[in-house]
From TrEMBL:
Family according to the record: Belongs to the enoyl-CoA hydratase/isomerase family.
Name the record gives this protein: Enoyl-CoA hydratase
Lineage of the organism: Bacteria, Bacillati, Bacillota, Bacilli, Bacillales
GO molecular function, one term: catalytic activity
CDD domains, per database record: crotonase-like
Gene3D superfamilies: 2-enoyl-CoA Hydratase, Chain A, domain 1, Lyase 2-enoyl-coa Hydratase, Chain A, domain 2
Length: 258
């Protein structure tokens, strides 16, 4: 049982809900531990083929709960290394698609958390705020890694330096999110999107995720070679055989994630 999150599996989708609505789902030490455990569980479960991360109530995640560390003499570097960095690393290692269903404000490390997901879907009421600069800090939890890669260095610097709020519409315009849905249908629309991903060849998606992220740090020649290696793996999966058979039989493939 978890205390700060809700973990549910339905229709091959693991839904992780940050569940501290009275605190805008702000991070605590317990939440970090539980989120890491939830992502590990979803990654190991062959019945899970897509992961949705969202927040309860009006917020997605408001960053660190300052009350959780009030009165402590914080070593910021060690704090990140022990709490935030393991979570972001685990999300990257999870070879299943992770959707951020951003239902409300994503601020500070909460914005970085959304950026660490593979795809971001936003409610029309969602917003993103890089608030670190407002308290004299630097974006962390992967914020300096993901943001420039998603929106470009110029826009990333602007958002990080000014701390300006980004609305859902603006987030879509700059490529920060893939879809914006009406608030009243947001949950249903998000789950429909997730169900589509859950029906796709999960092994191939995991290899795509691994290869794309690795490709950010490799030369073209290295990427071409890595593509050849992972294509050997993908080509031996049951889903590849099903995809080819469905093509010749002129039917919709039924992938099993194997």
């Amino acid at each position: 049982m978890f205390g700060t999150i809700v973990y549910e599996v339905e229709d091959s989708i693991a839904r992780i809900t940050l569940n501290r609505p009275d605190k805008f789902n702000a991070f605590t030490e317990q939440m970090h531990k539980e989120m890491i455990e939830a992502f590990k569980r979803a990654d190991k479960d062959p019945g899970v083929r897509c992961i949705v991360l969202t927040g309860a109530g009006k917020a997605f995640n408001a960053g660190q709960d300052l009350g959780d560390v009030q009165g402590q003499d914080i070593d910021f570097g060690e704090f990140l290394r022990k709490r935030y960095n393991p979570l972001i690393t685990q999300m990257r290692k999870t070879e299943k698609p992770i959707l951020a269903a951003v239902n409300g404000v994503a601020a500070g490390a909460g914005m970085s958390l959304a950026l660490a997901c593979d795809i971001r879907l936003a409610s029309e009421k969602a917003s993103f705020v890089n608030v670190f600069v407002s308290i004299g800090l630097v974006p962390d939890s992967g914020g300096c890694y993901f943001l420039p890669r998603i929106v470009g260095i110029g826009k990333a610097l602007e958002l990080a330096m000014t701390g300006d709020k980004v609305t859902a519409e603006e987030a879509y315009r700059i490529g920060l999110v893939s879809k914006v849905y009406p608030a009243e249908t947001f949950e249903a629309d998000t789950m429909e999107y997730a169900r589509k991903l859950a029906k796709l060849p999960t092994k191939a998606i995991g290899l795509i995720k691994r290869s794309m992220y690795k490709g950010l740090h490799m030369t073209l020649e290295e990427t071409l070679e890595y593509e050849a290696l992972v294509q050997e793996i993908a080509g031996s999966t049951e889903d590849h055989k099903e995809g080819v058979a469905a093509f010749f039989e002129k039917r919709t493939p039924v992938f099993k994630g194997k």
